[in-house]
Amino acid sequence: MISDFERLILDQSYVVNVTKLRRVYNRRILIYIGNKNGMISFGIGKGEDYETAIVNCLKKCKRNMVLIALDQKHTCPRPIGSRFNDFRLMIMPSNGFNVWGNPLIFKMLIGAGIRHCSFYCKSRKRNRYAIVNSFVISFLKNQTIQEIALEKGMKISEINKGNPSKYQSGVYY
Question: CA 8, CA 42: separation in Å to the nearest integer?
Fold first, then answer.
């Protein structure tokens, strides 16, 4: 199941626990996976060596699996945004795919299967854990055009895709 997903190893670091007898070194790894069709997940794994950290991380990825509501013609029909710690992410609909911005978010969008959007992020620090959490929080808010039409009581043809003033106002994150 996990072999069908595109994996991104986002962070690798050592964690040191100091005891009375010695120092214990552990490996910490952050992985993001996506199948390019609406399923995404991330996991943080720790272990004494690289292999156990990867195995623990993939176990957590299986537990954190999220299915995103996607429409193939309009993968992001309305603006969505989120905030985690100091990192703010805003994803807006567009006809094409904007490649300007943080390359990490660009790769995560491709892994999720989102192709009709542009994005920008705002932060003083680029903490990778905050980036992944903000990305997952924002795409839990994603809706299809049918869901937006049901929510607003409108026909699908009446919805102006990409214009937030038609169906949403205020601050997005």
Answer: 9
What six digits make up the tokens of 17?
């626990």
Res. 172: pLDDT tops 70: no
Q: Under 8 Å CB-to-CB from 132, ≥6 apart: which residues?
A: 10, 30, 32, 42, 108
Has residue 38 got a pLDDT over 60? yes
Please give the share of the chain, as a percent, with pLDDT higher than 90. Answer: 24
Query: Which ranges of the chain does DSSP label H, i.e. alpha helix?
Result: 50-63, 103-112, 128-139, 145-152, 164-167
Long-range residue pairs from 56-59, CB within 8 A, at least 24 positions apart, any chain: 57/29, 57/30, 57/31, 58/2, 58/31
Could you give the CA distance from residue 74 to residue 23 in angstroms, rounded to a whole number?
Answer: 52
Domains, the chain? 2-67 (3.30.160.20), 80-162 (3.30.230)
Q: Is 66 exposed, middle or buried (0-12, 13-18, 19+ CB in 10 A)?
A: middle
Higher per-residue confidence, 77 vs 47: 47
- Token pair for 152: 């607003």
